[in-house]
Each structure stands twice: as C-alpha cells, then as structure tokens.
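[Solved] Which block belongs to which protein?

Original post:
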Amino acid sequence: MNESGMAVKKIMDFYQMSDPKKLIVVSDDINTLPGALAIQDGGDLKSLAGQKGQESIATTLGTTNFIRFRLGVGKPPTGSSMTIPQWVLGPFGQEGKEMDLFYYLMGHTTQALLDFVQTNDLKLCRKKFTKSKKIPSGLVATESLVCPVQIEGI
C-alpha cells in the first residue's frame, strides 16, 4: 500500500484517465479521529501528512490534485509501546471499540462516496459528511468486519 503510485498510474492509463481531479483515493489516516471521515482535494505534499500510499501516488502522478477520503483510525493509545506501523497494520480490537468505529466509518464513507458520485459536489459532500470532530456515539457492537454495509439512496 505504501508503494501504490505505480498501480494507480497503470489503472489511470488503462482507463485513459488523464485528469487526476477525477481520482478518488480512500485510505486510513492516523491524524483523523477514529470513526471520523476527512475529505480533501489538492494541497501540497505536506497536506498528505505522512500517509505513504498517498505520497507515492502524488509523487508518481506529479500532483496532489486528487480527491482523498481519509478514514480516521487514530493513533495508538497513550502509553502504548505500539509503533504506528503496528497500529495501522494490526487487527482491530474490541477494548477501545476500534472495530465498532471502523464498522460505522465504512457505512459513513460508503454513503459519502455515493453522495459525491451522484452530486459531483465535493464541497457539499464535505459539509454533509465531515462536520463531526467527535468520536461517534451509539455505535453498533461489531464482532467481525465481514458484514453488510447499509447504503441508502441507491
């Protein structure tokens, strides 16, 4: 995933997609609260904030001018000896409700992507789906991420 730039370039070439503004990259983000969605477009390399996969895409394409749906996974718990790679590559736990938060986030992100594809209005989509800076409440207890995602409006 950290070296995804060449794969994205090959896909864009295959589909004869020359405008990076039509590219939507969905990835995890440790700088966004768990369960929250951040939506960005453009910016400089610094705006990618160390997300290696996005940096690889930007470097390969020669631009950061693509749309990013950043799924908040947060950082390792305070006092934990876990490194960032261990955190993002490790299994979701139940103790900190990581699995419940990610389940919520999958449905939320799917709905945001659908809304954006239908309206082509990134500003409206960002306003509608990224207004919360708090960890969501009323989460569904999730035993597994192998589950259906509810999509409204299809």
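(Second protein starts here: sequence line, then its structure tokens.)
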Amino acid sequence: MLDNVDFKIIEILQEDARTSLKMIGEKVHLTPQAVSNRINRLYHLGVITHFTITTNEKLLGRSLLFYVNIIMTTSDHQAFIHFIQHQPVVRECYRTTGHSCYLAKICCADMEEVNTFLEELLHYANYSLNASTLRIK
C-alpha cells in the first residue's frame, strides 16, 4: 500500500530522477537509507518500472518529430510489433482504440529517414502522419 510519502518520492523522481537520496530525504523527512528502501520497494512492487533519461533529440541531430497513426492491413500483429521494436526511429508505440490500431512517435534526422520508415511500414499497415511543430509540455 502506498502512502503520501511514497507519492511525494515518486513526484520528486519524475521531476528529476538524479535527485540525491539525501535531497529527497530532506523533502520527505526521512534518512537517505529510508528513501532508498522505499524506492527499492516501489520498484519491486512494479510501481516504478524502469529508470531512464530524456534526451534533447534536436541536439542529437534528430529534429523531426512525427506521430504516426497506424491502420493495420494484415492480421499479423506480432510481425508488426517485431518490426516496430527494431526500428531505431520509433521512440514510443501504443495500441489504441478509435480510428487507428497503433500510434507511434518517431524522431528522425531528415525526411529521407522518415520516408524510409514509412516505406517499410507499408508492408504491415497504412498510416497518417502528423508533424510536431512545438512542444507545449
């Protein structure tokens, strides 16, 4: 069972996962060891699923961001999922309800990279493409 301290620790880590145990402890009135124990418990409970970083794709040379609505043309979803999992341009992909079957977020260096991905995608599905022009949040 989670308490308010657990939720506060999660909030702090979501804001900046590099926050020291000491700093978190000061904010939630626990020792660094107690914070570490709580984080480990949250991880083992499956509340925290993994630790990662967020990168500035533009500084890494991948300034084009698109959202791809994917409408399957085959019933072989496993082959499609395997394809998506091995595409370096795909940052996220979700199974969805509504107009499309999946929604993928892709980051690319140039339009050639976008077109290469889309050409390969056509083996599994049709798509509609939306470009991101400004990140709001």
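Accepted answer:
You had them paired correctly. Confirming on the second one: The chain has two domains: 4-45, 64-131.
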